[in-house]
Design brief:
Subcellular location: Endomembrane system
Helix content: over 70%
Shape: elongated
Strand content: under 5%
Distance between the termini: 47 Å
Largest sheet: none
Number of domains: 1
InterPro entries: DUF202
Protein name: YidH family protein
Keywords: Membrane, Transmembrane, Transmembrane helix
Structural class: mainly alpha
Order of helices and strands: HHHH
Number of helices: 4
Radius of gyration: 19 Å
Number of strands: 0
Membrane topology: Multi-pass membrane protein
Length: about 130
Amino acid sequence: MATEDAAARPERAPDGQAWWQQGEEPDYRATLANERTFLAWTRTALGMFAGALAVLQLHQLAPFPLRLALACYLIALAAATTVVGYLQWRTRQGRMRLRRPLGQSPTQVLLTVALLALGCLVAAVVGCASR
């Protein structure tokens, strides 16, 4: 699948065109829907960044090392969400321009696993705080 995505995202076509100039302009509704999806990924990442800052401010919740670990995990997850959101937008936009199927991505499964791990980390922090 990685080679299929890479093939859908060439930086330059053989004729020297950039990816956003290749193929034909997709229907504007599909382009706007793709952009809204990218913005949703970005909002999710901003929420995670805000959560990281909030966790650091909760002094009575847990000791600083646990709060720092939770905040760092949230920041790393937010950064990864931002990058994945852009890559998904870029891949899908390129595929729409070339009239190719949008394809599948394991991203949702990976994000689910990462959020489950976050839930476990939060439970551990709250469990330590209740002792």
